[in-house]
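Quick question about two entries, pasted in order.
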Amino acid sequence: MRVVIDAAKCQGHARCHALVPELFAVDDYGTSSVIGDGTVPAELEERTRLAIANCPEFAIAEITLAEAQFES
């Protein structure tokens, strides 16, 4: 599993960071970003899916392996 955040959609609610601080960082304005390349360790997948579902702006997306390879 791998995730990305659309910075244009993020409004700084920081729910993702509250749920998975190991994966999401928050700047001084509350805008979230993915730590590292967005690869989610297996033990964080459940909480990450919860973070995706709880984003009120739908700014977090799970990307497939094919999409991840296309980005590289």
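Here is the second entry:
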Amino acid sequence: MRTLNLTLAGSVAGLLTLTGRLAAQEPTATPLMEKALTNIPGKEVVMLTVEYAPGGADPVHRHNANAFVYVLEGSIVMQVKGGEPVTLQPGQTFFEGPDDVHVVGRNASSTKPAKFLVFLLKDKGSPAVVPVQ
């Protein structure tokens, strides 16, 4: 778990450094589980929560994974390249495929935080987040 914490935290920090986002707007990613799928060799699932501060947003990125998002608190706006932006409330879901570029990921509110759960089905050992220039 410690490796996942450092890898994920490093990936998010690196993305934020590349885009020059202010520290107050950085999302907080909290790894919950990393599990190899023994019935699907070479694959693993990573489960984490992401919290956006009011007005917070992600830099443009991708996952090289199937990403399943479930909103827990607040309201978020998600969009993949070529798609329309979608505003999601608690209980609603969003999907990103391995070839999708996540162009919008942000808190819909400038006054309230937002939190969502993410499941990533990915190649074992591959990075959880990949920056897109």
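Reply: The longest helix spans residues 2-19. The two ends are 29 Å apart (CA to CA). Hope that helps.
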